[in-house]
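Same chain as my last thread, 289 residues:
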Amino acid sequence: MKKLIFIFILFVNLINCLAQDSIYHLGPDSQRKEGVPKGFVSKYEWQSKMYNNFREYYVYVPAQYDSSKPAALMVFQDGHAYVNDSGDFRVPVVYDNLIYQKKLPVTICLFVNPGHNTKDYPESRFRVSNRADEYDVLDDRYTVMLMDEIIPELKKKYNISNDPKMHGIGGLSSGAICAFTAAWEHPEYFHKVLSQIGSYTNIRGGNNYPSIIRKHKKKDIKIFMQDGSNDLNNEHGDWWLANLEMESALKFKGYEYRLEKGSGTHSGKHGGAILPESLIWLWSDIKIK
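reply #2:
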């Protein structure tokens, strides 16, 4: 009987989660449109000298890219989730549409997966061995790996702007706090942050960020955050409250930020549904010709 009750509770919780996320739907800018030029996505693998591990990464190049003009750069953590044309985010589709509409600058997108100790990756790339040690820690090691290893490789092929205001970085969950850490540690390199269901909780000390933000001099960072009131609540902390604490700290210090509040769970449904408007807001300070 106890087992049946436990299964019933799990079933009810699953139904509630599906219901909470079911209100979010992808809009027209997340759909393929006839007549919109399609960018090119290529896949690579990288062996990191800094971590001595392996990772996959993808590069999106829009059809409008002109090698004589420096392009913007947007880096996505958990790249496999963002590059997927049939997933929650569909970044290549969104960028195709918004660049065509001149709502975003011509942008090279870099989708980086977290590292794994061998080339035998798990089926779910969220389960790779080094994700928490790269994403949830509050230091610049991962950021330096991006700046010194992978992005220079990208610049061998593409003309990418050196202006930090033309550099953005984003992610979901642990990838979101990783993106914030990258900009926090190196605002001279990354100006824009996209944070979706960010793990500002005590996985590796991320719960300290609100007080760190309050006590440090304001940095030149622009931040778009998204979270839902039914996000995770476990031994690491309460994700919803953690994001509200981040919002309060950013407001206190006078940062240019926006927190889009919803009722979703720890999923990409809400963040994916509002991704076009999130990116437009984040890049609104860039004059698009």
